[in-house]
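Worked example 3. Consider a protein that binds heme C.
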Amino acid sequence: MSDERVISLRNPWFTVSVGGVIAIAVISGLIGFIWLPSQHADFSNEGLWTTICRAAGAPSTWYGNDATAAAGSTGDKPSDVVVLPPLAHVTASADSIGRGATIATQNCSMCHGVHGIVQVTAPVLAGQYADVIYKELRDYQSGMRPSAIMQPIIANRSDQDLHDLANYYASLSRTGPAESSGNAAGGSDSGSASASDDAAGRSAVRLAMQGDPIRNIAPCAACHGQLDRKGAAPWLGGQSSVYLVGQLTAFAKGDRHNDINEQMRNAARHLSQEEIDALARYYAAQQ
Ligand code: HEC
Ligand code: HEC
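Given these inputs, the predicted complex is written out as structure tokens:
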């Protein structure tokens, strides 16, 4: 048998064996690159070409899928950013509010009151957003927001208790201003307000409503509910200025660091002491 006759389409051994190898290669390619990956949701949800490239192990940048490339660069590590949707449109059940009221009367009202301020260091909770109360209670439980007073009080409460308490306080109507506007922002016509207080008051109103773009401070009202609201941002009106100064200082120093993406720390660390005092007076005089 000469070579020419072996490698010839007319030789049935040759055609059958070469054809067989090609057929096996094509079938295993189809199984390995298309059929098996297509059974796997992670592989198949971005189209046939992506499926093939992924099965072949090609780097995600090669097949030009930006979203996949971006996700790929951080690996499969789950995001640790918590997105907290405001719970305002979820109507709380009367049962939940009732349970919350019972717990609150026995455990919370001596400091937080039902209406108005009992202790200047304890924030007013009546009319606060439910998502805020729930988040803060969770943060006290986990220690994310340190407080020697609140942590032991809330440590053993169930998740349902926290929701009930949040629903109860959110169902109450907001209290009036905590402090008179005598020497605060709105008191421009008050004889007792000195000229420097007036200037500080005006700067507080400007910071609250317009922010200070040069120092990268967004308007407080853009997050805190007067103009617009970001999830987890508390309503500030009616808190005592003592509490507000305490919290702003804690954010500025980083002692309080439970704000998602440092939203508050970024604003607070650029404020001067006078601005913190003036903003606290401004919000204490709001409703
Ligand atoms: C002994 C007084 C006291 C009692 C009792 C108490 N709290 Fe507090 N609470 C405080 C103080 C003080 C703060 C501020 C702590 C800080 O600086 O973080 C606070 C903060 C909070 C906050 C944060 C609010 C915000 O706007 O950030 C929530 C929510 C809260 N308390 C809910 C409760 C609930 C619910 C109970 C009852 C189960 C309760 N507290 C019982 C004193 C008290
Ligand atoms: C980008 C949005 C954003 C801006 C701008 C912002 N805040 Fe906040 N602020 C938040 C969020 C969110 C929280 C709640 C943080 C947490 O506990 O999760 C918060 C919390 C606070 C608290 C604590 C209140 C409490 O009851 O615990 C005070 C006080 C406060 N902000 C004042 C201000 C002032 C004054 C300004 C303007 C100079 C301002 N914030 C600007 C988002 C913002």
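Take a moment to read the result before moving on. The pocket of heme C (ligand 1) is lined by residues 103-104, 107-108, 110-112, 121-123, 125, 128, 133, 136-137, 145, 147, 149-150, 153-154, 165, 234 (CB under 6 Å). The CA atoms of residues 141 and 155 lie 5 Å apart.
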